[in-house]
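Incident review: delayed structure delivery

Summary: a single-chain prediction request sat in the queue longer than the usual turnaround. Root cause was a stuck worker, restarted by the on-call engineer. No data loss occurred. The affected request and its eventual output are reproduced below so the record is complete for anyone auditing the incident later.

Affected input:
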Amino acid sequence: MTFTTFFKGVRAAPFPEFLTQEVSYDSAKLPRTSPKEQLILIAISDRTIYGLEIQRLIETTTKENISLGSLYPILHSLAKKGLVSSVWGDETTCGARRKYYSLTSKGQDVIRNIFTTQYRLLCDDLPKDGGDD
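Output delivered after worker restart:
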């Protein structure tokens, strides 16, 4: 069963293409991420998006509030880990410049690893004897 088959009907938008690609990577070499970092990476997904949009998307979708005071340090941390990249946009009509974030290929690998792990936990057979406690 593939991700797209498993999640069919769950989400109206198409799956990000990078999730459907078979890529081999060493998950042990991927940086560890906190649940909030994972949430932000998934919110960015295949988008090029600025901070306030990330905050609104997470709040609208999960009802979890991430303040801008904590969002930007997390984005900076993700950039230092090589998981997101950023570019400054042009000035808007009000004069403020926006910094747009997108995933790097390493960031895509982290998301793919998160979904693969969750998928395996959900779908793989448990040991018949209940496993070790």
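Verification: The chain has a mean pLDDT of 81.
Action items: add queue-age alerting; document worker restart procedure.
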